[in-house]
Amino acid sequence: MAPGGRLLLALTLTVESGRITSYEVVAAPARLRELRLAVLPD
After folding, report:
1. 22 and 12 in contact (C-beta within 8 Å)?
2. Gap between the Cα atoms of 7 and 1, Å rounded
3. How far is Cα 18 from Cα 10, in angstroms, rounded to an integer?
4. CB–CB of 15/21 below 8 Å?
5. In this structure, are residues 11 and 36 in contact, taking their beta carbons and an 8 Å threshold?
6. Residue 4, φ and ψ in degrees, nearest 5
7. CA distance 38 to 41
8. End-to-end C-alpha distance for the chain, whole angstroms
9. Taking the domains of the chain in order of start, what are their residue ranges?
């Protein structure tokens, strides 16, 4: 989520055999700065 262009939280996903097996909500500013982010195409 990035309302107004400011990143507030992100989801990290673990995918195994084509299925999401776990996820984590990241909201701590220090952790958000460490993430490598990408925008996926439509």
Report:
1. no
2. 6
3. 20
4. yes
5. no
6. 65, 20
7. 10
8. 17
9. 9-37
pTM of the predicted protein model = 0.65
Residue 31, phi then psi, degrees to nearest 5: -70, -40
- Tens-digit pLDDT profile for residues 1-42: 788 888 899 999 999 999 999 999 999 999 999 999 888 888
Residue with tokens 């990143």: 7
Give kind and range of the element (H or E) at residue 34. helix 29-34
Amino acid code (one letter) for 11: L
**Residue 7 Cα distances to 17, 18, 33, angstroms:** 30, 27, 9
Question: What sign for the dihedral angle of Cα 37, 38, 39, 42?
Answer: negative
